[in-house]
Amino acid sequence: MGHDMKATTIARIQAILKRYGISISHFSQIIGKDRRTLASWLHGKAQKDISLTTKARICEFFRYPMSIWTCSDTDFIALLESIPTQDIRIIDEGYAGSLRYMLTQEINGRFVVQPRFPAPAYRDLITQLPQNTTISYEAKLLMQERSKKILDYHFKSTEWYSIESLLYFGFCAIGNPYTQRQKILILENLYKLFFNNPNKQLYLFDSTADGIFNIDMNYMSIIKERNFIFFRLPINALIVEIANANFVHTIYHYFTIKTNNTKHIQPADSLIIIASLLESIQHNETLMQFYNKIREQTAYAGLFASNIAEEYRSKNI
Known about the structure:
The protein is α+β, with helices and mostly antiparallel strands. The chain is 51% helix and 11% strand. It has helices spanning 2-20, 24-31, 35-42, 52-62, 73-81, 94-105, 120-124, 137-151, 163-171, 180-194, 245-256, 267-282, 287-297, 301-305, 310-316, and strands at residues 88-91, 110-113, 157-162, 200-205, 219-223, 228-232, 239-242, 264-265.
């Protein structure tokens, strides 16, 4: 009987791996076991059955009930393909805990909407924000690990930034921590990483557009293959996870549907704009000088105009 239960557990883990296309290496990180231990389980070489603690970790990660291990095969298949019933989950494990969570969830790649330009991985190559000096040693190590992953040429990363945050980075004099030299280095490094890299995509979008106003207030990561989204809030680095399939589809659909291309700037053109911004900063150009270049050289003047006060534009054109 014990052997049959063990075989059933292994078969169900293999089914979960297949369902989500997760590698053994990724799965070993999810459950906190080394790859060799997991491989011995999956190949039936381990003497003991998988512990309840490990089963609970699997259920927590994939949002399945614990009954998935003891139910009938018919019920298991239904649960495997079902949408989790708990729509919202809060993860409150502090700054280090939020970093561990993001590393695990985004281990194979990410599709993210960033709250500001640039993302921390590109910023931290050049400078450190003052608040980074107060975080724990564990959090610093996790930050370094995450940055290394994001900066890896082969790591798949689709990143969305609002035009507003790009203009703020380039030209705002209030609350902007970057020197001219730092801005130049950040833009140069980002351009080199994304240019002609099939694993990286950078989009710019108009966050003032109808239907998504201020959608970029918090870090948002869309895990489409598992039908959930998580937000990272600035208050104690809280993670809010939403597993409502309709909600996930609506958000993902907005950012990927071709009919919304008029509100998005595609990756190739986004990099052209990054290069143009770099040139403007190198030559100490003003916001309106940069805007006029966009107006004259690209088809995106309307998107940028939406993010610059009309009165300011009319006085400076």
